[in-house]
Write a structure and sequence with these properties.
Radius of gyration: 33 Å
Low-confidence stretches: 1-32, 64-70, 286-302
Distance between the termini: 86 Å
Number of helices: 2
Largest sheet: 13 strands, mixed
Shape: elongated
Strand content: over 45%
Number of strands: 30
Length: 525
């Protein structure tokens, strides 16, 4: 056995099959598209859509090798209406151009022309699509012809029976009596096959066995769910200072991104999006390297999204048809920008962000209160109500915040965060980062455990320094983590009890000034 003597190749593999062979597949019933509607659901965590999901080049460069659509965090309900020709009595209808990621158990078929007289006896989904690998696998023990193009343009053809195909190599039985078995290690420029083997199709196809009382043209409706499709919201926020250092104004706009990797394109589709946490029973799925983990109707443009309450969720309907090609991402404006929305700048100092829970008794470790964080976090907070220029349901998504640099009139990025689904009249809190000119210090000044009396006395001193040239308001957050039974015995400033283990000291720190907060707490168990 030896390799045919051919020169190095200049181009990659190309497999061609004579067009006339496709006629052997059989003809589907004549069909005419009468429109498609798409309702898309997202199961993604807010802001957690990685670029690898919708940028194939980036996904390949980073080594993500998952099957198309497997890890897309969402799904869609597809509704298609077509005119088809049915024969009276029992017959077969083949319905092509459906999503490759279809969930067959969700398929529903109905004749709108004769619903009572048309019944489905059986239905199946054929998805064994033709590919070079599958073609060659089905041509084992069958004749093939390999063509190799030389640098001078001369074509050399090798004919034989395909015995094996693996790893880009082929084993052929030829008519050469001296070299009947040949191993071809080089890729051919062209592989010619005599026909398309049975069992392979060129497009995903739904097949129904029907019993129709009325023959002729029927308008039918097909509904199914498909994975490989999702959507998410992105908010763009521009912040503007006011005379009050603790308050500002924002302009808020929103876009939706729609990702379609379902294996089908949807032309001129009626589009709807569902916002909310819709329960869905799903089997466990294999996790890959990519973790998978809107609005006022009166103000929306005529062809933009309109929102309405729908059961316990919100439904957003696009007022115009849109086309969603397969393997594509499309952005559509969710609502026009809202300008001049008042907001509050919130500074929060959390000197000891403790994460421990309660045990069987109080925690008597001195070191538990010693770790110190010096950074003061900064947030923007605004109310989603009509008085602020909003008052609409906001789907979960990522908020990117920018601020205008007056020196050159350019927007500069200053932070981002994510929000969950937010109803109207609720507050939105966006964490941007840590303040540069405001710092904090926290130290434990007293720690007296008395296990016999089953109590602990503990005291703290907290300092917040403001190096700005304007006063700021800062919230000092303290967690009373040692035990559920506690009492503030002394405090230098007024405090607010936020929950069973958290208190806030709201303080105002003057320009280039410092505020010192002290308090003592007693735990008893």
């Amino acid at each position: 056995m030896q390799t045919p003597r051919v020169p190095p190749l200049r181009v990659a593999v190309a497999i061609s099959v004579v067009v006339s062979v496709l006629l052997a597949v059989g003809r589907s019933a004549a069909q005419e598209s009468e429109g498609v509607a798409l309702t898309i659901y997202s199961t993604a965590r807010p802001g957690a859509i990685p670029a690898e999901l919708y940028q194939p080049a980036l996904r390949q460069a980073r080594g993500y090798g998952y099957r198309q659509g497997v890890e897309i965090p969402g799904y869609a309900v597809v509704k298609q209406q077509r005119k088809v020709q049915l024969e009276a009595g029992r017959g077969v209808l083949r319905f092509t151009d459906v999503a490759a990621m279809i969930e067959p158990t969700t398929v529903m078929f109905a004749s709108l022309t004769d619903a009572e007289g048309t019944s489905v006896l059986e239905q199946s989904f054929e998805f064994d699509l033709v590919s070079p690998e599958k073609l060659l696998e089905k041509f084992i023990d069958r004749p093939v012809a390999l063509e190799f193009v030389h640098p001078d343009g001369r074509v050399e053809t090798l004919r034989g029976t395909l015995l094996s195909h693996a790893g880009g190599q082929m084993i052929l039985r030829t008519d050469d009596p001296g070299e009947p078995i040949q191993i071809v290690r080089k890729a051919a420029d062209r592989i010619s096959l005599s026909e398309l083997p049975g069992g392979l199709i060129t497009r995903p196809t739904l097949v129904w066995s029907l019993d129709a009382a009325q023959g002729g043209e029927h308008l039918v409706r097909v509904t199914y769910q498909t994975s490989g499709t999702t959507w998410w919201a992105d908010y763009n926020l521009v912040y503007e200072d006011t005379d009050d250092a603790n308050r500002g104004k924002i302009d808020l706009g929103a876009w939706v991104s729609i990702l379609n990797q379902s294996g089908a394109s949807y032309k001129d589709a009626k589009l709807k999006l569902i916002a909310g946490d819709v329960q869905r029973a799903e089997p466990p799925r294999v996790r890959g390297r990519v973790d998978r983990e809107m609005m006022a109707k009166a103000a929306a443009p005529a062809e933009g999204f309109e929102e309405k309450a729908f059961f316990e969720y919100y439904l957003y309907t696009l007022g115009r048809p849109t086309t969603l090609p397969d393997n594509s991402t499309k952005q559509i404006e969710l609502f026009p920008a809202r300008r001049g929305v008042p907001c509050e700048k919130v500074y929060l100092y959390y000197g000891a962000p403790v994460r421990w829970g309660y045990g069987r008794s109080a925690n008597t470790s001195r070191e538990l209160g010693i770790p110190m964080n010096k950074k003061v976090d900064v947030y923007l907070r605004f109310r989603n109500d009509k008085e602020s220029g909003l008052g609409m349901p906001l789907p979960s998504g990522r908020i990117r915040v920018n601020k205008l640099d007056p020196e050159d009139d350019t927007l500069e990025f200053i932070g981002e965060n994510v929000i969950d689904h937010t109803p109207k009249d609720e507050k939105v809190l966006i964490k941007l980062g840590s303040a540069f000119d405001i710092v904090g210090e926290r130290r434990q000044t007293e720690f007296n455990p008395d296990t016999r009396r089953r109590r602990i006395d503990e005291s703290f001193e907290i300092r917040v320094r403001n190096h700005k040239d304007v006063p700021v308001r800062v919230i000092i957050k303290e967690t009373l983590f040692r035990w559920s039974g506690w009492e503030i015995r002394e405090a230098s400033h007024e405090y607010e009890k936020k929950d069973a283990r958290t208190i806030h000291f709201p303080v105002e720190v003057q320009a280039d000034g410092e505020v010192v907060v002290t308090y003592s707490v007693r735990y008893e168990w």
